[in-house]
Each structure stands twice: as structure tokens, then as C-alpha cells.
Here is the input.
Amino acid sequence: MNAADAGPVLLEVRDLSLAYLTSEGRLPAVRGIDLTVAAGEIVGLAGESGCGKSTLASTVLRLQPKDAEVSGEMLLSGADVLTMRWGDLRAVRWAEASIVFQGALHSLNPVHRVGRQIAEPIRVHEESVADDEIETRVGDLLESVGLPRARARAYPHPLSGGQKQRVMIAMALACRPRLIVADEPTTALDVMVQAQVLHVLSGLVHDLGVGMLVISHDLSVLADVCDRVAVMYAGRIVEVGPADQVFSDALHPYTAALSGAFPRIGDPAARYAPSGLAGDPPDPRTLSGGCSFAPRCPRGVEECAAAEPTLVPLSPTRSVACIRVAGRATDEPDR
Amino acid sequence: MSAPASSPETAGSDAAGPVLTARQIVHRRRLDGLGRGWREFRGNTPGVLGLVVLSVFALIAVFAPLLADPEGLKVTQAPGGVLEAPSSQFWLGTDENGRSVVTLLIFGSRISLFVGLLATTISIVIGTLVGLTSGFFEGWPARVLFRMTEWFLVVPFLPLALVLATVLGRSLWNISLVIGITSWSGTALLIRSQTLSIKERPYLERARALGAGRWHQMTRHVLPNVMPMVFANTTLMVAVAILAETTLSFLGLGDPTRVSWGSMLDGAFSVGAMTTRSWWYIIPPGVCVVFVVLSFTLIGQALEEIVNPRLRTRR
Amino acid sequence: MTTLATPPGGAAEGAGGGDGEPDDPGEDGDAAGSPSSAGGGRSGYGGYGRFVGGKVLGSLGSLLFVLVVNFFLFRVLPGDPARTLGRGRFRTEEQLNAFRSQYGLDQPLFTQFFTYLKNTAQGDLGVSLRYRVPVSDLILDRLGTTLLIVGTSTVLATTLGVYLGVVSAWNRRSLVDRATTSSTLTLYSMPEWWLGLIFIATVGVGMGFFPGVFPTGGLHSTDVAPGFVNGVLDTAWHLVLPVLTLTLAYLAEYALVMRSSLLDEMGEDYLVTARAKGLRDVDVRRRHAVRNAILPTTTLAAINIGFVVSGAITVEYVFSVPGLGLLAQEALSIPDYWVLQGTFLVASAAVIVANLATNLLYGALDPRVRT
Here is the structure.
């Protein structure tokens, strides 16, 4: 679906920044992010580990650690999560938006049965619901993710990774939220299970009309399932656009490197020489002030170190933050 | 030292330095690790405090004859009167025999520290051996050892100590033995679970594939990785051993000819120092025990945090 | 020995051997799952039954071990057991022989062992050399007092200790936490009987301006009016200090371990999940964090029982309370061997039973252990 068909905007992130205050100094994890997710659309957020994606995810429900410095706005259906009163926040959590956490291995309480954990948010948010109705709903939820109803009586530890992840998805749906954030939903799952989980997730959007934000370092997963994709590097968004375009025709050099790392079927050259990217993501404490990608960029020039490039819209649906693509210095030859 | 290896891969981490052997690299890495550990320890205030206090007591114990007159321990030649209150002559008064409490405290430190260390050594040696063996080897000998460890865990310390004391006689060696016997199983369990997890690590598998024998695996791979945890555990065990020794001496199971803090309190109790309000006889020995045990505990906890990175993040 | 370095995998039978990854990797569809979750409903309780059976068997094994140890303790001595056991009390050969035949020491070792087992099973633990009554009678007589002291202290220490530990951990680095941690560390570092001595010296005998409030020892005062209620109150009054002493001593360890394990749990991911669901802080703490953190404390309780028994000995000695502990301590002086042997047996059996109870409790609390 394209952006025009999307429903009302559910999530609007405005100039969000978050820095961890550690004993070793101030660690900026997210630096001025703008993002929107509308009902019925799946937005992907791509990037390497450590670029700040998970931090962003936790901030959606104000779950960031206490010693984190946050600025900007995180609007859920118009209300700023970051400054909400505690009571309002608790009401919003899970009922308006829920999160499918990464690493379901440890995200489930090991001593409570699965059914109880799925039912818990229902009991919190809809106190008047009777026990047998809750039981029915839990069973329905499990079935909707492809698990048998009897699973509700199981404890988390005998379940496999894929089953646990699906339990997490069922749990995320319990209070019928309008927005779901899926943080690395397929990491640590093998390929067959990945496909199943992605199928479930996209099914939810099409059947229920929820809005979804999928976070992953795996661009192929995002290309498969998302409508739009935003690429993050060192705490900033460097490119946004429709998923297929971003993947196949990347504009930002980093995106190009990311998608180029996946060999394409049918392209003999890619099989023999998948392009990689030398170096490591920068240490957030030592960012100098210019483009954070410049040290690793194959197209970098002197001007790149001058200032951090801003996200410039090239068309109604695509934006890039790179002076070599949009802005001055486009005509200079590559390095 | 063997000659440096000639292949380029073993070129050490120094840019222009000599080429190092594998053993030298390992050695250097261990030293670096120790340096790092020490720096971390320095940042742990309670641990450092414990170390300082402990050093003071250790020095007192070592230099006891220089700090106090050993003649002051002799009951027959006691310098003071019975249960004298503190004065300028006797800073902490005297005991029921007229001996200076300060002298007794100073010499008592020797026994408490000595027995504590001896008992812990026994405990750690047995515990490490049993733990390593039952964790590393398969088959029924290992299982039997594990069962025995569990059984020893249930043996209550004091009743056994009472029985052994009557059977073997009262001496410091027997006290140490009793403490060692009743405490090794905790260490053994800890080491066993560590060994079990290390055993499955990839580098052990590689060592086996390269033909490393069991002994080599145990001593060169498992033991060095288990040692840090053992060390932390040992420190905490010494604390427990000293408490145990004090208790056993208090009950009169120690060597009657030697003064320890526990035996001082035994004297105090027998003579009814509580009713005569002879606080100088009751309080100081206990305070010394608390200080020493607390020091070991704080140091042990600091070491545990260094060894177990999981614990670090939550201070 | 009580130590804060509790084995991470859970000591004793808690977690079995080593660290195992509970997941089996690989997708297996939804029908099969793993054996224990097949058919959903039965996994919890059927597994527990087998778990209980295993633990009980283990305890019986421990009991047998204790019986063996108990038997051989007095007989592995070098030299003639009769001479050692009757140290200095017999002068003629006839007396020695009489002693030998009375205690069956002239029989082969195996026969002696089976006689010992048979006697123990029947409750015959020998005769006290000092009181000249059967040891079992003495023990039964004194058991109640000790159970009262130990039981009350354990209950108080566990509840208070856990509560303090939770409060400390949840409000880490606050004033409450710092104060609690320092005082519990100090309490943990002192011999419990020394605390008793201090109590006696201060509130028992009186110090400075304070009059002595509590009795300094014994179980009964002579000047109490007759009557059952008066007797009970009098006993309770006498037990205040001993119970307080033991409670404070063991509270410290529970508080420290609970704090430590709760701090461990607080970093866990499932707590983030719980908060994300909109739970109140209190509920996150109680239902999720503490519920998991209580597990290591349960294991600790299992190990600790042995030391509660030992603690009873010293505290009864200091407060002259006529319980099992004092009996054992008095037996030292004769030495009254059969009494010592009997009390060792009872103490070990108590530890085994308590361990069993705690392990079963742990099994009920942690489903992962049952599979």
C-alpha cells in the first residue's frame, strides 16, 4: 500500500534525542529523529546494532532507563508520551501501543504460565472482564498467531524460540492496541520461523488495521514486509522512503552498503563479491560534528566533515541526509 | 624461556617489540588482567576499606611480640588485679586472671587469623578438588562425588564439632579440621557448576580436538578460569571460618593454653563479666571479630563483583 | 557454613547439575512442543509428583549417610574404643569388659552397625552417662523448647529479612538501603552469641541508668505466681532475648541475600515487559521481581537450617535455656558420648527434613526445576 492509503497518523516522533548518562560520560544514543507511523502501514527502521533503534523503541512507551536524558516529542495519537502524567501513561501502555520485545527468551517471566502473562494486561486495563471471557480471549489470541489454545497452560521454558516470539505477539495484541512496535522480531530465529513470524505480523496489519513499526538490522526482513523504511546511522535517520525503492535503489551511501551486503539472486557478480563496509559504527561519545558516516563513506569529500547533513526531501516520499546526494557538493567526483 | 616463535602470526601486540611465544602472551595477558582487576578493586570503596582494616590486623598479628609483652599472657605472672577497669596502665583493663586485655587481644589476633586461614585452606583444597573432578569427569565416580557433596552440605556444623572435639581432643588443628570438613561442600558446588559451564565452551572443544589430555585441559584451561571465582569465594569463606573458630573457642573446644578472641569471651562468660559490668572484657574481643570478619566480607564481595561482571552493573 | 557466596546455580538439589540451556533449538511445529508441555495441562502437576519422589529419595539417602557417619565417628579412633569412650573412668579389666559387652563393643563391626541401626530405628539411642536416663527421653524432653526458639526466630528472621532485603534493593542507594545494608552486614559479621552477651549485659543486667528489664537466663523465674497462663507468659518473657538474638543474627543473611538476588532480577527483560503492560510499580515488584528473586532465598533457607540448629546451641548456652542445644553443650564435659551422638543425629535429621521441605517449596515455586 502506498502512503496515500494509510489511515490517521498514530505515532509521530518529533526531533527526539536521548542520551545515556553513564559513569564514563554522556552517551548520545538518539540524535534528533523524526518519524511517523500511520494506521494500516508498516514502517521499518533499519540500522546496525548500537545505532539507537532499540532505544527509540523503548521510548515509545517511556520505558527508557531513568538516567537517560530525553528531549523532543513522542506523540501517540497526539499526546506526548514523554511528558504525560503517570496515570495517563499507564493507561496508554499496551492499550494504545504495545511492544513485541526482542529476545523473547528473557522477556517472558519464567515462573508464570503463558496464558496468565497474556491475560495480565487485559486484567490491568479492562478490570471488568470476567475470567472465562479472558480465557476465551487468550485462546483466541494464541490461535491468531498460530499456536494451539492449550499453550496457555504452558510455562515459557519448554517453548522454542519461535513459539515464544509468537506468544509475545499474541501478548502484544491482548488489549487491541492501535500501534505495535516490533523490536527485532526475527533475530535469533531460523529462516523458516522468521517467515512465519513475518507472515503473522503483516497479517495483523491487513486484518486489524494496526500501524506497525518494525525495527531490525536485517534489511531483507524489512524489505519483505514494510511499506516504508527509515535507515538509522549513529542515532540519526539518514534515509527514508518506500521499502522497495530504498532497498533496490539506495540513495545514501550507507543504505547502499547495507543493501549491497545482501547478495541478490540472479546477479552473478553479487555472488562472488558481496560488498561490505570497512570499519565500525562510531563511538557516540566521540562524534566530531560533521557527517557521522564520513569516515567510512566511499563518497566522502572534505565538506562532509563540516556539518551534520540534514534530512532533505527529494520527493514527497523520499528523503536523504547526504550532501553528495541532496544539497551542495553533488557534482564533486567520488573519492 | 624458550626461543621466540618464528612465524609472523605470533608477532606480539607491541608494534616494534620482540616476537612472543604463546606462553609469554598468556603470561602477559594474565598480568594485564590482574592489573585491571586491581584497578577495579581500587574503585570499590567498601572493598578498599576492608583491605585497609584487614592489613592493620594482619600487621598486629605478625608483629604481636613487638607490640605487647608475651609474658603478659602467662596466668601465673599476671601483672594486674582481677577484672580491673581500664586505666592508664591497662588501656582495656584486665581479665579474670589479671592479664591485660590489650595484650590478650593482640595475641588473640594470631590465633583467630591463623585458624581462619588454615581452616579455609583445608576447605578450599578439598572443595576445589572435589568440585573440579565431579564437574569435569563423567561417569559414576563424578556422580558419587556430587552426592557426597550434597550429603556433607546437610551436616550441621556445631553438633559435629562437638562430637569431633570429644573424640579427637581439643586443639587448634582439630578446630581447623572441623571447620574445613563442614564447609568444603559449598565451595565444591560452586566450582562444580563453574566447571560444567566452562567445559562446554568452544575453546575447550578446540583443545580436545587438538589432542589435549584431561590433565592438560583441567590445569591449563579450566582451572585458570575457575580460579578468580574461587579466590572471591575463599575470601568470604575465611570470614565464616573465623566466626566458626570464635564460636568453637567460646565453647571451650580450642587449645586451653592459647588465647583467642573466642576464648577471651569464654573467660568473660564463665566469670560472669556481664553481671559485674566488665564491658572492657566483653566488648573488645567481639568488636575485633566483627572488624576482621567484616573486612573479609567486604573484600570478598568486591572480588565477586570483579569476577562476575553481571554483578558490576547493578551497584 | 553460612556464606554469602551461595552457588549461583542453586546449591543442594535446587537446580541439579550445571547450567543447562532450557530451550531446545529448532522449530518443531506446534503440535509437539517438548514432552513436558505436550497436552498443556498436565505438565505442571504431574512433573511435581515425580519431583517430590526424587527429593524424598535423596533425603533418605542423606539420612543413611548421616547414620553411617554417626556410627563411625566414635569407632574410627585409633586404639581401643572402650578405653577411649570410658576414658579414665575404668580402672579394672573387668569394668572395661563389662563396658564392652554392655555396649556390644566386642562384636564384629558389621554386627555392631546393624545393632546400632536397629536400635536407632526403635528409638533407642543409648543411655546418658550423666543423667542415667535414656537419651531419647532427654531429647524428647528438651525438644519442645528448642523448637520453640528456633521456629519463632526462623519465621521472624525470614519474614523481616526478606522484607528488608526487598525494600533495600528496590530503593537502591537510598538512605534506607544504605542504613539497612550497613547494619545487616555488621550483624552478619558478629557471632550470634556475642550479641546475646551484649543483650544480657545491657537490658538483662542493666547498664548505667537502665535497669535490667529482661531475665538473664533460664526458662522460669522462681517468684512467679502459679497457674498455666502465668507459666506461659513467664516462659515467653524469658524467651524474648534468646529469640531476639537468633532473629537478628539470621535476619541479616536473609536480608543480604534477598537484596542481592532482587538486584539481579531487576535487570531482567521481563520486568520491562511488565512495565510496558501498564502495571503499577508495586505490582511489577511484587508479582514479577520478588516472585523470581525469592528463589535463591529459598535455597539459602535450605542451607541455613543447619546453622540455625548450631545457633540454637550457642544461644541456649549463653541464656541457660534448657533445650537440646544446652544438652549437647553440657555433654561435652563428661563427655557424655551417647547424648552427643543422639543430638548429632537429631540435629542432622532436622537439617535433612528442613532441606527437604525447602527443596519441595522451591520446586513449587520454580517450574523450571520440575522438568
